[in-house]
Amino acid sequence: MEPRPRQMRRRGQIPKKDQHQHSPGFFKRMRDLPPQEQERVLANDERFQRLPPERQQMIRERLRRWNALRPEEKERMRERQEIFESLSPQQRQEARALFPKWQSLEPERRKELMGAFRRLRSLPPGEREPFLTSPEIQGHFTPEERGLLGRMNRLLPESRSEPSDEPDE
Question: Considering the entire predicted model, what is its pTM?
């Protein structure tokens, strides 16, 4: 069995950046096209055609999944992407570090935590910390879940202070 590109990249066998990269907005524009037009564009795009077949298939699969989403799901995905793109490099790294922890939660706990995060996000910045330390949050979520919620809070636009290296008092 041959190693996958990601495994090869980790071993330093291929460069991290794809030499056939498209402009950042290329795939955003592709998402807005009907599936038949997406396929026509890919079939006529030289850069796409030069990609390894596995990469081409992955891109087609992602577009297929995107096309299968309901309009409200697509809108949520667009909003999340805009939020992610607005983050600083350090915040993006933090968001990437949070994702596996988030994914490891049971679906019901993720749903409850997301509800609390939406509520947190709707609060003015000065009310967020009191919300996080409220009896409601303290009693409903585990310490790990509260930690996740606190880290998610730091990703919010008005809460973008970097975590302090000083110990808590």
Answer: 0.57
